[in-house]
Amino acid sequence: MYTYVLFVHLIAAVMGLGAAFGFPIVAKSAKTVSQAKFVLNLLQRLEILPKVGSVLLLISGIVMGILETWLFQEAWFIGSIVIYLAVQFIVAGLLPKNMKKQLEVLEGAVGEELPESYKALGKQSAKYEGISHLAAFVLILLMVFKPF
């Protein structure tokens, strides 16, 4: 049973992290207001992948701990859960809020030049994404190498 849950965990990671790592690349491709509106609407539709992936990651991780109770005594396992939960504040709270603000800025834009406030929000999102990507890297390191 553990192997099946681990498989779901890995698929959820690919589904969630793959999309999340691609978001900044797609977002930075917009050079005009029209392109930015299209990109943000597309990203809002694609948000389902990281959302479902994130929920499946948490559920499957907890289930693996229930199946193998010794995992709850491992610092790397507990640390992974703590880091994961901390990052959810960014990916489920701050980033979607910023995306919504960017769309609001674009709705009030005149012409095709991207407003400075849109760019500033994009830079803020880039910082949040950088933190979440670093956390994902640390999580993968912890789960692969189990250092403590």
TrEMBL record:
Record's keyword annotation contains Membrane: yes
Keyword Transmembrane assigned: yes
Domain of life where this protein originates: Bacteria
Pfam families xrefs: DUF2269
Keyword terms: Membrane, Transmembrane, Transmembrane helix
Positions of transmembrane segments: 6-27, 48-70, 76-95, 128-145
InterPro entries: DUF2269_transmembrane
Protein name: DUF2269 family protein
Organism, scientific name: Cohnella thailandensis
Lineage: Bacteria, Bacillati, Bacillota, Bacilli, Bacillales
